Amino acid sequence: MQKRTIIKKIRTIIEKVGQTNSCEMELDCSPIISCIGENVVQLAEGFFVNGVKAILYANGEEVDDIHINYEDLRKDVLEEILFNLENYEVEQDKFMESCKN
Predict the structure, then answer these.
(1) Which of 1, 4, 51, 85 could bridge to 13 as Cys pair (CB 3.0-4.6 Å)?
(2) What pLDDT does 101 receive?
């Protein structure tokens, strides 16, 4: 699947379920955007229509956060985000259905 197709699917899901984050989605681990050595990692933790909130951690402590557009992320990161959002969408659909009953 091409990057633009993945991005379109991500945006469609977010437009449906609303912006979300790794905690709300109950992810075991946020998607890793980059890793610098053993102690510095940048994670995608917030998911919005136009991109992600990326948190930079050094030695386990949050040191910075920035917005990154989906177009600027690697394809493997986008695929992981899409996978997580698809699972979240299914769970949200199940929850909404249970509220109807």
Answers:
(1) 85
(2) 62
Interacting residues of 41 by C-beta distance below 8 A, sequence separation 6+: 32, 34, 35, 56, 57
Q: Hey, where are the domains in the chain?
A: 3-92
pTM for this model (two decimals):
0.91
Cβ neighbour number for residue 86 with a 10 Å cutoff:
13
Looking up tokens 């946020």 gives 30
User: Per-residue DSSP letters for the chain?
Assistant: --HHHHHHHHHHHHHHH--EETTTTT-SSPPEEEEETTTEEEEEEEEETTEEEEEEEETTEEEEEEEEEGGGS-HHHHHHHHHHHHHHHHHHHHHHHHHH-
